Amino acid sequence: MSIINVLDQGYVRLVNHMGSDLTVVNAARVSYAKQSEELSERDIRLIQFLAREGHTSPFRHAIAQFEIYAPLMVARQWWKYVVGAAHYEGTGDSLEAWNESSRRYITEEPAFYIPQAGEWRAKPESSKQGSGEPIAWELGEKHTEALMAYVELGIANYEAALQDGICAEQARLFLPSYGMYVRWYWTASVQSVAHFLSQRLEHDAQKEIQLYAKAVLELIKPLFPVSLEQLVAESHLVPQSH
Amino acid sequence: MSIINVLDQGYVRLVNHMGSDLTVVNAARVSYAKQSEELSERDIRLIQFLAREGHTSPFRHAIAQFEIYAPLMVARQWWKYVVGAAHYEGTGDSLEAWNESSRRYITEEPAFYIPQAGEWRAKPESSKQGSGEPIAWELGEKHTEALMAYVELGIANYEAALQDGICAEQARLFLPSYGMYVRWYWTASVQSVAHFLSQRLEHDAQKEIQLYAKAVLELIKPLFPVSLEQLVAESHLVPQSH
Amino acid sequence: MSIINVLDQGYVRLVNHMGSDLTVVNAARVSYAKQSEELSERDIRLIQFLAREGHTSPFRHAIAQFEIYAPLMVARQWWKYVVGAAHYEGTGDSLEAWNESSRRYITEEPAFYIPQAGEWRAKPESSKQGSGEPIAWELGEKHTEALMAYVELGIANYEAALQDGICAEQARLFLPSYGMYVRWYWTASVQSVAHFLSQRLEHDAQKEIQLYAKAVLELIKPLFPVSLEQLVAESHLVPQSH
Amino acid sequence: MSIINVLDQGYVRLVNHMGSDLTVVNAARVSYAKQSEELSERDIRLIQFLAREGHTSPFRHAIAQFEIYAPLMVARQWWKYVVGAAHYEGTGDSLEAWNESSRRYITEEPAFYIPQAGEWRAKPESSKQGSGEPIAWELGEKHTEALMAYVELGIANYEAALQDGICAEQARLFLPSYGMYVRWYWTASVQSVAHFLSQRLEHDAQKEIQLYAKAVLELIKPLFPVSLEQLVAESHLVPQSH
């Protein structure tokens, strides 16, 4: 299946892709006017060589396209990566699309991520981590309920403001937007996706974005198996219990 | 003064700059091995020519640096410009800095933008505008009070969550973050600043970001007067009543 | 056919592509959670609207991939566009690949572009043009012969240097490299290709790169017909006598 | 002095700069609303931390500006870095300026890099190197003379073509352009310069560009001493016999 559910309402959907591991090989060999039609042992060794030596540019010619539905706080960290580290890909537009949808213009009904009682995490023991172990269930239950009530009140305030004729770009001040779901397209090269995965599968990434990164990996791995195996650290490739 | 206050608690501060209108001229003439020491009539005509013909690359060698304190919804639109349109400048990092400060790690006390009674705007009459005229004062007063109460409740919930040991990256789900103030550095070329101004001084930009754009223009105009006059539309250069 | 010959030995080959005009529509509508399966009249009007209003980001999600074989002076102007104007796409690597192939390491036998007697052009009458009308055939014949001899001598010197053990990175000083053929991969979005075409189909672009741009247009137009019609000026879409 | 000569006719000139090591510290601390006025021990440890952990974005707010005069083959490798690795800086324009100057329009008299008898290098013993030891002086002398004659003949052909009315964009096919000097402006952040240095001071970089990189390092090191010490490998900071 080309869609994987994440969190209470989110998902990652594989929309399209272009090329295969062969694309990487052919882009790398373009100056030799040679083209492979089938992935040979020699081609695999070339991919290993390119990844090991940091010659990652041929991996930019293989492309994947995703549709993502995630809380704004996840989307923001996703962009941070896109902006700070890549600048290579035509990924900027996902931002455009997303920003337009986020309450400056009224579109969908707002939807919010609400952690369940067992999903609240303690603060980390070391500053190398984003968060620690789950907190006590009863405590979690209390905050889940508080958040549900707070989100409900925010939506009520937001709708009252719209009702009174206030423009959407100001009415949204009432929304607890870190948890608000947004939806965007992400078109990125294998190089870029691998870089994103290397950062966002790390233990110090926010748990919520780690879950999205795992979904991306699961969807893209069968399409470019040799490349992903070389570009993503082994520890991240081993299936983990969610 | 090198600082201009914007909204209830925000500001734009000019931190530094490099070069002058002469820099643009010298960068454009580099291939002729000629260098001007003082801005002549001929140099001014060259700047006019470059702007008119769209040869804006020499404007990338003159640089300005700002520190900005603004609500997250303003920051997001600022980036959208940076990401979607520029990709030329070393501006990506402002984003990094900002993201880190926005409640994943606890830093400053959260501060929020609260429009005053007379500052709430109606929805636009045409879709070409972001918002319309101010709404009735009494109505505005009601929503200002509602927003103050809502923000206060959010902060209380947020602090209760931290108190109960929940990690900051989840506790922030309680914050109505569109209005939350964030602070970042922006280092950009004159080309990039002019492009930002051209978009954000337009009547369809959100009013709040227009106010920040006016502050940027006021701070940078004396440093690169000829360049700004050529790159920014005349209608935006005329001082307007705020 | 997916390959078009250009100049005496060059070509443009369509290697692959991802998406269609529908991709643009779906990327633009992502925030509405709507997806088209077939291009309707309404979808066409949306593409027209996006192009007219300059909302070109959805065009970045539709991708084309080319292999190009062209003289270095054409390749350099191609990059100039890529570097100066795009920065959006994963196109940087074509450059990497190309640079490596261009005589620092010995790969293919060097091949050179030699204009035929009737292909030499006069200097332009106006500075708005890159070149003017063809020069007299006899004059052209003289320079074609001179260039053939000069290139031959360069290759002989280059090979003598290699023969004497000189490294390739220095031996290439003997090659008249503006006309030397290089080969590269170019993976770019429809937005990026359209921008390249808008610049390189212009009458002031060098004639040789105009011919390559026409080949790119011919190959990509059937894949994204509505988008290209909107993004590229009408005058460039009318078939012209070469 | 702010200018260092490189090769037979080239140079690197420091044109301007913005900021200091303090700029890096202040950009990194922006989210804490703290600003240093003088570089303390604590600030130095922060710079060490940022470099060690790869949080290089604060280094993008400190800027340096150079004018460079170098053979085209050096310029091309410089760009390759700029295009392939940075995309962060407003450096694209140097390319614009340079490309325009390189013989499509007639500007300066063409000047060429001619290695002296003792400067020709053998091919490398290992593929990890670009070149090996100097070749025998007599052999070098032969090729220096051959190159001088070849360049002279090229210029004569080029001028004959111009004389016969051929446009400059075609006449340049006669120039052995790898060695042709071009001049450009480079405005780049400390992050970007450090990255360039890390690559171009390496033993496998072409010797000629290593010499330019050393000149850049010598000019920029006194301006941002702590940052450069952290970002550039120690082995490159030790003065070496040229």
TrEMBL record, chains A, B, C, D:
GO terms for molecular function: flavin adenine dinucleotide binding; NADPH binding; thymidylate synthase (FAD) activity; thymidylate synthase activity. Its EC number is 2.1.1.148. This is FAD-dependent thymidylate synthase. It holds the Pfam family Thy1. InterPro entries: Thymidylate_synthase_ThyX, Thymidylate_synthase_ThyX_sf. It comes from the Bacteria. CDD domains: ThyX (cd20175). Keywords: Methyltransferase, Transferase. GO terms for biological process: dTMP biosynthetic process; methylation.
